[in-house]
Structure formats: structure tokens, C-alpha cells
Amino acid sequence: QSAPTQPASVSGSPGQSVTISCTGTSSDVGNYNLVSWYQQHPGKAPKLIIYEGDKRPSGVSDRFAGSKSGSTASLTISGLQPEDEADYHCCSFVGNKIVVFGGGTKLTVL
Amino acid sequence: QVQLQESGPGLVKPSQTLSLTCVVSGGSINRGGYYWSWIRQHPGKGLEWIGYIYYTGSIYYNPSLRSRVTISQDMSKNQFSLDLSSVTVADTAVYYCARSRTYYFDSSGFDFWGQGTLVSVSS
Lengths: 110, 123
Prior knowledge:
The complex is a heterodimer of chains A (110) and B (123).
Chain A: E1 9-12, E2 18-23, E3 35-40, E4 47-50, E5 64-69, E6 72-77, E7 86-95, E8 98-101, E9 105-109
Parallel strand pairs in A: 1-9
Antiparallel strand pairs in A: 2-6, 3-4, 3-7, 5-6, 7-8, 7-9
Chain B: E1 3-7, E2 11-12, E3 18-25, E4 34-41, E5 47-53, E6 59-61, E7 69-74, E8 79-84, E9 93-103, E10 106-113, E11 117-121
Parallel strand pairs in B: 2-11
Antiparallel strand pairs in B: 1-3, 3-8, 4-5, 4-9, 5-6, 7-8, 9-10, 9-11
């Protein structure tokens, strides 16, 4: 199973919205609604921000939203804030109890 | 609140076996609904799923690591472990243990993580 593709970096100004894509195939991202997203600040463990495609864990801001179209899952962060600057990772279930992470995306808040 | 804490050597010699333990508090690993997982992150890189274990003893591994990985659990100590054999410098990484929630027995998101432990492979 190959890793879903994420852009290496994205950027946006405070208050703006940014979208990070996670592109797989019809066999993984496109076949299951089991994509999760993680926020990771430098030197810290990842934090779950979206699971099962579009669900937010308790305590996660509603500025974070997950969606999917075809074989591409997306994470949209609205009302960008300085503390949103971090690495973002997607993870997709690919069948046979296996999951695969994307390569990660660095978000810069300008 | 579930908490996970990794422990183990920070330095392993090439060709030896890397062994880590994850102690879980605030929740029992002896219940359904969750996979207990190992994930690693090479320096400056993305995350790599290693494998996970269910309370029934079912274990699932990353196919690329399957030949070298063993995950086990000790219910009496509420902990689970990772053994990675025949390590090389390419196995140098931060190793995380994490809990995966499930959706109809499939992993749907890693909701609790340990702080991670850096393991370096060097002679």
C-alpha cells in the first residue's frame, strides 16, 4: 500500500482559510470513510483533530473540518490563528486492518 | 483520561533488537473497542504505522515491517510492548505508542498518544 499524498507545505494569513489535501486511490481513501487527521507541533506528539472523515473529538475547535471527494480527503482550517502553525498528517484505513499515513504537510501562518 | 508512557533504551546497536514498553493508565487494555498501537517518526519525516494489538490477542502489522516486528501485551501490568529485530540506522526514530479507536473493528483514528521516545541505532 502506498502512502496518501499530501502537499509538503501550505500557508495562509491569520483569519484566512486553508485546505490540506490527502490524495489516495479508489482502494483506500476512496473506498473507506476512515480518514483521520493529526496536528503536530514541534517536539510534541500528534493530536487527533478529525476521525472517521469528518468527526471532531471533544475539545477540538470547530474551525477544523474534514471532508472527502472521491479519493481525496481534505482538512480545512478556517479563521487561521498563529497557533495553528504545525505539521498536519492524514491517515487512511486501507483494508485488511492496515492503516497508512500521508507524508505530512507543514502549515505556515504568515 | 487515558495516558500512555513509553519506556526503553534510547540507544541500540545495529543488528540487535529494539524493545519498548508502553504502560497505559486511566483505562484498561483488556477491553474491546480499541487497538493498542505503535507508530514511529523518522527525524524530520512523517509518521509510520508499525502495528497494533487487540485485547483478544489479534495482532496486525505493517507489511513492510512484519518480518521484524513483534507486538505483545501483558494484561496484568496493563501494558503492551514492541520488539523490532535486526535493527539498522534506518530504524532510528521517535517511537510512539497510541490508542486507536475503532469503527466496526477497523481503525478509525489514534486518539491518545504517549509522549514518544527517541531510539537511536548506532554502534
